[in-house]
Structures are given as structure tokens and as C-alpha cells.
Specification:
binds protoporphyrin IX containing FE; 12% strand; alpha+beta; Uridine Diphospho-n-acetylenolpyruvylglucosamine Reductase, domain 2; three-stranded antiparallel beta sheet; five-stranded mixed beta sheet
């Protein structure tokens, strides 16, 4: 621990909050974090609440180790929050060691469970879900996503969006929920039609958790010292926040039971390729899968993982896709992206649209003559610059040694090439900082520059860490996002449909900022309101 304390880092500005206020409560996400990286390099220390030392890492060798090593698990706070939000048994919290005892299904203790005995709960749950998220399966959901995208356009028309300035986040969230319902759970969640309360309740819950404040930082710190049973009792207190959580659980528990009942009724004991079927137990193999009542836990996990992250990303792209009025950022883009999309008709091969994918950083093989490469495209590289989760928190479950790809000079002038750390050490995997490392992404790493994805050389110089375009946006290693293919396809489909029909622009007097809290990026306007007001116009007048 002494060596950790000799690793340089920013001076704390408060004894109570350390540097966490400077990390999280800033006008724009990364305001201080990216400067710290420039000053101290890709591995530095940071003071948390009451003098606790945390490590910030963006060094690819260190990040790779942390994300792949079983020695690192989700932190206690994250696990408690996941327990409260999703319920015991979520794949998210199963990364933690304590989860291994608590997660799995009271009716089948791990010792009696052949598959769990040979691995961890986390691995087991991923094994149940992973097949559904294969490239082939995700591609088969394309028509469903396209149908929801058409409904979104109709909804905007019906609501009279064209000609006005509106917050589109709500309807984007409704569309994301409908896509999860129709494509993954084969059940209508009625977000866009307004007939269901699910997306409204979920939005309320997400918004209530997404505010950066000093008291939230303290709560976050204290949570890990609160025993599970006390936390469990606290969640039952009659407070507005906990009431909302209970309503959400009641609603999703009922929805989960309905989905299971309908699935069992249609299957009649047979099997199909559906996501839910992959989780269900059967009479022939009662120890495989999860009990019926746990489907609601996975429903909540997928709803949160698939709605919150994706909607925030898509909305941050929307102005640039339809072309922001910010001429410094994208003077030509509107025409070129629109042209690219207008040129295709019939069945779209989304992966073959260079500009569209440059926005979201898909690497594509370009045609020999690409009319768009000379376009000074300045669309946001949304996935790189605005990763929905710009930081992942992990804690060492045992003593271990972290590798470094470049040596660090300690405060005492000693050069070290690895860092021994003790059990209980908290680490932030700094995803947003990694995406701004000049050694990896070039001198212009901090710039919005989609054209980097249109050049013949890979923009990422170094070992690829994530599953997609060498980005860490979907993380990497054993906790890598299960739904990354699904998310990418969903973004492609919705952006294309929106750009085909509408021109979006940011109102001139309203700058949207991204603030980081609860570890996700939250878009806000200068007055602190969580929304993105966009001016919507029809494409053709
Ligand atoms: C742009 C959209 C998305 C982004 C940026 C994103 C990012 C991430 C990240 C960074 C993690 C790791 C979190 C951590 O361990 O701290 C994660 C996990 C996860 N994501 Fe995504 N995600 C997106 C969309 C989706 C979608 C659409 C789904 C499902 C339909 C999904 C399902 C999951 C699940 C189940 C996990 C937990 C994996 C595990 O713990 O093993 N995600 N995602």
C-alpha cells in the first residue's frame, strides 16, 4: 500500500471528498480527468473520500490485466446497487465474489449444480445468454429494429415534432425499450404507443440516480461499509426513491411472470432459439437455467443495460447525424451523410455505409473510389468520445501485481515497472481517458474526427482491447458487454431512419454537456436539466 501512495496524482481539494468532486462534479465530463492524464500519465493515484487511495488506469497493459484477471471484481457499492436495482442473480453483479455465494437460485445450491460447480456464476450466466447475442442472431432482429424505427418516425410526426424544438430523449428511450421487448423478450413493452408504464417508470428511476452531488459521493463511499441486510432494510423505507424502485420491481416481476407463462404455453416442453428459452429450466434438466421467478432479474438487467447506455449514445449522435448547427464541428456533414443514406434503397447493408459508421466507429472496407473520403467529415465519434460508461470500477479480491507498459517514476524518484497492490484496492478503468491517449490514437486523440475511421490505417495503434473497433466502450475481458452487437445495429438502424426523415439541430443558445455520474454519461443543458433539446425539421422543407 505504501508503494501505491508514492505514485503521483492530483492533490486532493478536500479531505472529505478527496479529488472525487473534481473528477465527477464538473461542467463537462473529463474536464480535470483528461488534464490529469496529460500531467501524470496513464496510471496515477487519486484520493477518494476520507483519504482513500484509488488508482486511475488507462495504460493498455494494466487495463487488459485488470479486465481479464479473476482477481478483479465489481466493487461492493456497485454490487449493492445492482442487487437493489435488478435483484439477486443479475449477471452484472455476479462478477463479485460475494455474489458467488448469494446469487444462484436457492432451489439449486451451487454444489448440486454441475455447470456452476465447474465455473463461476458469472461465467455460467454469460454462458446461458451469450448464444443469443451471436452475430447471426442479432442480424436476424434487423426487421424488428427497422419496424420500431419506422414507428419512431411516425411518433415524431404524430407528436408534431417537425418545426419545433423538443427533447427527443424520451421517445428514443421508448424506442429502445420497444426494441428490447420485441427483439429479446418477444413481448410488446408499448413504449412508443404510450400504452405501457414501463419506460416512464424506468426513466424516472434512471433520472433519480443520475445526478452528481456531494451527498451522492458520500453515499457511494458509505455503501460499501453497510451490511447487506441493513441496505436491504433501507430499500424498504417509505421514501419516494425507494417507492419508485418497488413500483418498478412489481411491474417487472409481473411482466417477467407473463413472459415466462406465455413462453411455456407456446413451447409445450419443446425448445426454441428465444432469449428467454435459453434461460428457462426444463423438466429434463432441472438444474440447468434459472428458476422462473429469476427471469424478472434478467429482464431488469437487460432493460437497464440496453436502454440507458444506448439511448444516451444515440441521442448524443443525433444532432451530428442530422447535422448540428455547430459549424466548427461539422460544416459539411449534413449533406454528405444524408447523401450517403439517400443513395441506398431497398435492403440496406448498414455495415457498408462509411460515414454512418465513422460516426459510431465501425471499421468498414471502403470501396476503391470513395466519394466521401474528401469530405471534411466532422461528425462526432460518439462511441470513442462519449462512451456511455466512461469509467468502470473494479476492486482487487486478492493481492496481485499490476503490469505497466511504461515505467512510472514515483514521488521519491524511483522508477517502477509494475505495481504490487493489496486486496481491497479500488481501481477505475478510465475508458474515456484511454480513448484520448495520444500514444494509441495519435496526436489528435482528443479531437472529434470521424475521418480517422475512413483512413486506410487502423486509428488504434497498439493492442486491441475491446471487442469492437479496438474501443473500450463496451469494455473487454470477462465482463465485456453482452449486447454490443445488438447496440451497434440498433444505433445504425435508428440513425439511418432519423436522418432519412428529419434534419436535427441544436438550438443556437443551448449547449449540451455530458456529465458523468453513477458512472454513466448524462447529457445536460447549461441550466443543469437532463435533456437534449433539438430542433427538428422535415428533410424536404
Ligand atoms: C451503446 C450501448 C452500450 C454500451 C456503451 C454498453 C457498455 C457496457 C459496458 C461498459 C459494460 C460493462 C460494465 C461494467 O462491468 O462495469 C456493459 C455490460 C453489459 N451490457 Fe452493455 N452496453 C451497451 C448496450 C447494451 C445492450 C443493448 C445490451 C443488451 C441488450 C447490453 C447488455 C449488457 C450486459 C448484460 C452487460 C453485463 C455483462 C457482464 O457483466 O458480464 N448492453 N455494457
Amino acid at each position: 500500500r505504501r508503494l501505491i501512495n508514492s505514485i503521483p496524482g492530483p492533490k486532493p481539494t478536500s479531505w472529505m471528498y478527496g479529488s472525487l468532486v473534481d473528477l465527477f462534479i464538473t461542467n463537462e465530463y473529463g474536464e480535470n480527468e483528461f488534464k490529469w492524464q496529460d500531467t501524470y500519465g496513464p496510471v496515477y493515484t487519486l484520493k477518494g473520500c476520507f483519504g482513500e487511495t484509488r488508482l486511475m488506469i488507462s495504460d493498455p497493459a494494466t487495463v487488459k490485466f485488470v479486465l481479464n484477471s479473476p482477481a478483479f471484481v465489481s466493487g461492493a457499492t456497485q454490487q449493492k446497487a445492482a442487487n437493489a436495482l435488478f435483484g439477486y442473480g443479475s449477471v452484472f453483479m455476479a462478477q463479485g465474489t460475494s455474489a458467488l455465494q448469494s446469487v444462484m437460485v436457492p432451489s439449486s445450491p451451487p454444489s448440486q449444480h454441475p455447470r456452476i460447480a465447474s465455473g463461476t456464476t458469472h461465467k455460467y450466466l454469460r454462458g446461458l445468454m451469450n448464444p443469443w447475442f451471436s452475430a447471426k442472431n442479432v442480424r436476424s432482429t434487423l426487421p424488428i429494429m427497422q419496424e420500431v424505427a419506422h414507428k419512431l418516425v411516425e411518433h415524431w410526426e404524430h407528436m408534431g415534432f417537425p418545426g419545433s424544438t423538443v427533447d427527443v430523449t424520451r421517445s428514443m428511450g421508448d424506442a429502445a425499450i420497444d426494441i428490447v421487448g420485441d427483439a429479446i423478450f418477444e413481448h410488446p413493452f408499448n413504449g412508443l404507443s404510450g400504452k405501457g408504464n414501463l419506460s416512464k417508470t424506468q426513466r424516472g428511476l434512471v433520472n433519480s440516480m443520475s445526478s452528481a452531488s456531494r451527498s451522492a459521493l458520500l453515499t457511494d463511499f458509505c455503501l460499501k461499509y453497510i451490511p447487506d441486510f441493513v441496505f436491504g432494510l433501507a430499500v424498504t423505507l417509505p421514501l419516494p426513491g425507494t417507492q419508485m424502485l418497488r413500483d418498478y420491481h412489481r411491474m417487472t416481476d409481473e411482466l417477467g411472470s407473463t413472459i415466462v407463462r406465455q413462453k411455456r404455453d407456446t413451447l409445450h416442453g419443446a425448445k426454441d432459439d428465444a432469449f428467454v428459452t435459453g434461460l428457462l429450466r426444463t423438466e429434463d434438466d432441472p438444474y440447468n437455467g434459472v428458476p422462473d421467478e429469476q427471469i424478472a432479474v434478467h429482464l431488469r438487467t437487460i432493460l437497464f443495460a440496453g436502454e440507458d447506455t444506448t439511448v444516451r449514445l444515440r441521442v448524443s449522435e443525433a444532432p451530428s447525424a442530422g447535422c448540428s448547427t455547430n459549424s466548427q464541428r461539422c460544416p459539411n456533414t449534413k449533406k454528405s451523410l444524408r447523401e450517403e443514406i439517400d443513395q441506398v434503397s431497398g435492403d440496406i447493408d448498414y455495415d457498408s455505409l462509411p460515414l454512418l459508421n465513422a460516426i459510431i466507429n465501425v471499421r468498414v472496407s471502403l470501396p476503391s473510389h470513395n466519394p466521401l473520403t474528401d469530405v471534411d467529415c466532422m461528425l462526432q465519434e460518439a462511441l470513442r468520445i462519449y462512451p456511455a460508461l466512461p469509467m468502470a470500477e473494479r476492486v482487487a479480491a486478492e493481492d496481485c501485481v499490476l503490469p505497466l507498459s511504461q515505467p512510472i517514476t514515483t514521488k521519491s524518484g524511483e522508477e517502477i515497472t509494475h505495481i504490487p497492490i493489496q486486496k481491497g484496492q479500488y481501481v477505475y478503468v478510465a475508458i474515456g481517458s484511454y480513448h484520448r491517449l495520444r500514444s494509441i490514437w495519435g496526436e489528435d486523440a482528443a479531437e472529434f474526427k470521424p475521418s480517422r475511421w475512413l483512413e486506410s490505417e487502423q486509428p488504434c495503434k497498439g493492442t486491441a482491447l475491446g471487442p469492437y473497433a479496438s474501443l473500450l466502450t463496451f469494455l473487454a475481458g470477462h465482463g465485456v458487454c453482452l449486447g454490443w452487437r445488438f447496440a451497434v445495429q440498433e444505433i445504425q438502424v435508428l440513425v439511418v431512419e432519423i436522418v432519412r426523415n428529419f434534419v436535427l439541430s441544436l438550438p443556437a443558445d443551448n449547449t449540451v454537456r455530458a456529465q458523468c455520474f453513477g458512472l454513466t454519461l448524462v447529457p445536460k443543458t447549461a441550466d443543469g436539466v437532463q435533456h437534449i433539446p433539438l430542433h427538428v425539421e422535415h428533410v424536404h422543407g
